[in-house]
Amino acid sequence: MSIPTFGLGTYRLQGQTAIDSVRNALEAGYRAIDTAQIYGNEAEIGQAVADSGLRRDEIFITTKIWINRYAGDRLAASLEESLKRLRSDYVDLTLIHWPSPNDDVPMEVYLQGLMRTKAQGLTRRIGISNFTVDLMRQAIALVGADEIATNQVELHPYLQNRKVAAFASSQGIRITSYMTLGVGRILADPVIGAIAREHAATPAQVALAWAMQSGYAVIPSSTRRENLESNFQSLKLRLSDEDMVRIAGLDRGERIANPAGIAPDWDD
Question: Is 90 a catalytic residue?
Fold first, then answer.
């Protein structure tokens, strides 16, 4: 029931750019693709996967249910629509994209709905995204920690989200780090740059290696084939304990993804 440590993120990738990015990633060796209903690119990902020549069971596909599809039968129906766009009978992992704003739809409703899609075979695993410690506790009380494959959260050297990560780890829930490169901000950091030079690596490789060595899954995105290939090489990079301590010191609580009206009350 484990999830891949390394995959391709597709946030903001549209049209032919999304197709090309997925194709190039698969050719470079990626075998996990992360998307979401709100990204508007499931059809392009489905096309790229279908054109790749790889078997469906060789690729791990994640999608996320958007917040206006949580109530009643809408959740399952929306996932079935996602499957049509993805040209697949199932997805490997389906996440609740954000906790329901203002608890408009009770968590019990949408998590039980997600559990039903698993029982129906529409998804192999279920999980959550952007859940705080308190929200994780509520989710665990409703479905059990064993059912929650991951909590996908913003996590990078400038926002290390330690409370959420520590609680998830204590419950056996894998953290997936999104925005691991801080939408490029991390790449210019002098500490990251110095570590990269010491390892003859790129700053992106250092940040990704740091997250993976911390126990997190990562889903970096790129539209350039050379960056996709370079990022993939972070799997081979091993940072020292001293490197990890230096990066730990970069945390400054710098949150990037914080949509008004949607984001929960974050942990400090």
Answer: no
